[in-house]
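Reopening this one. Same input as before:
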Amino acid sequence: MKLQIRFILSFLLFFAIGANAQPGSLVGGPQISIDNPLHQFGLMKQGSDISCVFVVKNTGDQPLIISQCRASCGCTTPKCDPTPIAPGASTEIKVSYDSNRLGPFSKSITIFWNSSDGSTNDIVITGDVQP
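Same output, byte for byte:
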């Protein structure tokens, strides 16, 4: 009888410890990491080449797949590589902005990737185009 009670108590203790684990700590998968999700161009001359590169790293334990990069408007063009990114490896997202439009701008690009919870990540470019 004492052996059964010890077994039951051990099982309950093990279950209680497992239930208190941090969310996601037991779940693997791809994880996206962007060193600097904001690029500030500052003052730019109208008609100049306005583009930058964001470095995206897979910090997870499964391949990361960027399925789409969607800009907030047609004046911004992101280029994403759909090739799977191995754990620990990196890729680049190039973003170009149409500098024929005058004035300050702030544009976001949403990155869609194979996250386990369907989440997305945003990168942002800002600047001010002068004549």
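So the earlier flakiness isn't reproducible anymore. For the record, Helices lie at 2-19.
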